[in-house]
Backbone:
């Protein structure tokens, strides 16, 4: 494990929430991008991506970590869970 980051808090499902227009996978992808940036990581050398997801419903019942890794531009050979 290199580092950890968490997304911002807000009322994502609220009509007035400032996160309402941002998909959950994009929020998490921003976290992973920041990890890569601040640790000066070569994306080609990332061995694995592990993402915690407390409420997997709807579209998030897919492998969210895989979607996030691909959004960030990690190689398709990088496992993610």
Residues:
């Amino acid at each position: 494990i290199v580092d950890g980051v968490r997304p911002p808090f807000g009322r994502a499902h609220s009509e007035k929430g400032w996160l309402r227009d941002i998909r959950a996978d994009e929020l998490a992808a921003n976290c992973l991008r920041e990890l890569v940036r601040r640790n000066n990581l070569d994306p080609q050398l990332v061995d694995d991506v592990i993402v915690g997801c407390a409420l997997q419903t709807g579209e998030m019942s897919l492998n969210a970590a895989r979607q996030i890794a691909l959004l960030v531009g990690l190689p398709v050979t990088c496992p993610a869970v």
Notes: The mean pLDDT is 82. Residues 30 and 72 are 8 Å apart (CA to CA). Helices lie at 24-38, 64-72. DSSP finds two helices and no strands in the chain.
